[in-house]
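quick one, 126 residues, struct below
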Amino acid sequence: MPAVEIEEFARILAKEVRDRAIQSCDRQRRPDAHSPVAERWRALADAGDLAAAADILIPDCVDETLFCLLQAIDQGVLRIEFHASTGRALDLVNEGAGELSGRYMSTDGWRAQYSVERFVDDFDDL
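---
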């Protein structure tokens, strides 16, 4: 395993995906944040029901992390090649055309199409 290259991947993954997702979620907790996520989280905190809060917070944080991963791919920060079951190798930066993160989060996007777990669609009324 090429140590230098693996360490570069690890550094980019931690910084561009994990850290950005945590920073984004932290911004949602600020009192001056007014996004749909921030409003939802504030209402959950006011209700004081930890179980209900977890039901929303867990998928919100997972979706934010996946969004950050796909954005890093969209922006060419993480150059990832996917090998499909057909045997075809796809360069996700080129093949995704900068739209992977949007295709994941959109109302009829990948999480709505392929996931069986809960999520809140903040774009369904647009």
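The chain is about 65% helix and 5% strand.
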